[in-house]
Amino acid sequence: MKERADIRLQAVVVLVGAVLMAVKFLAWYVTHSNAILSDALESIVNVVAGCFALYALFLAAKPRDREHPYGHGKIEFISAGVEGGLVGIAGVVIVVRAIMAWIEGHTVHEVEKGIVLVAVAGGANLLMGLVLQRRGRRERSITMEASGTHLLGDAWSTLAMLCGLAAIHFTGIQWFDSLFAIGFGIFILVQGALVVRRAVAGIMDETDMGAAAEVVRLLEKHRRPQWVDVHNFRVIQFGRTLHIDCHVTLPWYYTLEQSHDEIAVMEKLVNEEGDRGVELFIHMDPCIPSSCSICSLTNCAQRKADNARHIPWELESVLGNAKHGSR
User: Fold this and answer.
1) Which CATH class is domain 209-326?
2) Does residue 228 contact residue 294 with C-beta atoms inside 8 Å?
3) What are the residue boundaries of the structural domains of the chain, listed by start?
4) pLDDT attached to residue 108
5) Would you state the pLDDT for residue 230?
6) 307 HSE (CA, 13 A, CB side)
7) Cα four-point dihedral sign 285, 286, 292, 296
8) Domain 2-203 CATH class label
9) In whole angstroms, what is the distance from residue 129 CA to residue 124 CA?
10) pLDDT at res. 111
């Protein structure tokens, strides 16, 4: 089961993150570097956020129940929002502390040992971040993708920090440490804001236009003549599952059974041809005389006008709340 594999992977990430946090604090103890201390403090956020993400993945994997008829997937957006908030707070603390250290002045020790320790931790974060981000995108898990983005940001900022330590080593200019710490803090503050923005968008049911366009493309590709049009198309994401409700215009003389069969074909199509689970809630509309001009159904005894044009189903053409032929 994919959800269990994701949970196991996140558990490993949390354990490794705790070890890396210890390594970074050791590097700070050896060097007294503010930049390294900033990185170590941000690692606390990594571990806390990782634990919350682990809980979110566990909860999101639970089946839907009477109290949660749409499942528990929304927790993934909350988890990503919490992680982004923690990252932002850490960024502010890092910047403030670095500015204070710059004003007070301090000396960095044992730069070479610090470079080695931080490089090992940064390399591990890079590897874990790439794995999590890739899996999160493949499995449509914003929790795993946010964790991966967070760890990648940590890895790139560690690289910048190593450049700062190298600059101190070769130039002897001590304030480079605080300068790079400030830059690091601003960087992760921006990363946290971006994660929060995406999480809020999910909680507010902002349409994923890319996912919606892909579903519409599938319907257009396999479109049947009796599917006169699709309109009032809306998409909501609950975790990894898309919930779509829309109106489909069918011939007015179809029986309830015939209409149901056509809708069942649509549901099967988007789930078998797409790359994620899709739950469709379709309202069936009967065609009207003005629909004849866009209907390609042949041998229709009820036709009032010839088929004059074809309206391709694209995202812009299906979002409106009106039958295509009535426009």
Assistant:
1) alpha beta
2) yes
3) 2-203, 209-326
4) 55
5) 92
6) 12
7) positive
8) mainly alpha
9) 8
10) 59
| Ranges in the chain, pLDDT < 70 | 1-2, 34-35, 38-39, 101, 104-114, 157, 160-161, 164, 174, 177, 239, 325-327
- Return d(Cα 212, Cα 278) in angstroms, integer: 11
